[in-house]
Design brief:
Blueprint lengths: L7 E5 L3 H13 L3 E5 L2 H11 L3 E5 L1 E2 L2 E2 H10 L8 E5 L4 H9 L4 E4 L4 H13 L7
Parallel strand pairs: 1-2, 1-3, 3-6, 6-7
Antiparallel strand pairs: 4-5
Length: 132
């Protein structure tokens, strides 16, 4: 059986405790995880690690996660990378705004570890938009 590298996930959340929780669940699930607390660090991480999935907090301190989502979609190497928005915001209009702006899926806090892992796997299993 050939070795397959673990799928890479970048997590961007301004709450370092939430990063540790999400990162811990993902690492236990066998993923290569890189966590960032600022949008600028997160974008650099996306450039450096070329993740298979990005997990993005909806509220990043003074910055709205949908603004960061726009930057992710504008960057050619991450334009088609699945983005899971992770947030305590559960209003339907906010969920639809994120989906309309390019989020692949949405997960509300609090969440169960298996729910996170299931959504990530679903994003990884989804057909790619471009021919690869």
């Amino acid at each position: 059986m050939a070795y397959q590298r673990p799928k890479t996930i970048v997590v961007i959340d301004d709450d370092s405790m939430m990063n540790a929780i999400v990162g811990g669940y993902l690492k236990a699930g066998g993923y290569d995880v890189h966590m960032y607390v600022t949008p600028d660090e997160g974008m650099q991480g996306i450039i450096t690690h070329k993740p298979d999935v990005i997990i993005l907090d909806r509220h990043l301190g003074q910055l709205d996660g949908t603004e960061v989502l726009g930057k992710i979609r504008a960057y050619k190497n991450s334009a088609d990378t699945p983005v899971l928005m992770l947030t305590g915001e559960v209003r339907k209009d906010e969920v639809m705004k994120a989906i309309t702006l390019g989020a692949s899926d949405y997960l509300a806090k609090p969440f169960m570890p298996q729910e996170l892992l299931s959504k990530v796997q679903k994003l990884l299993d989804a057909p790619k938009k471009k021919d690869e």
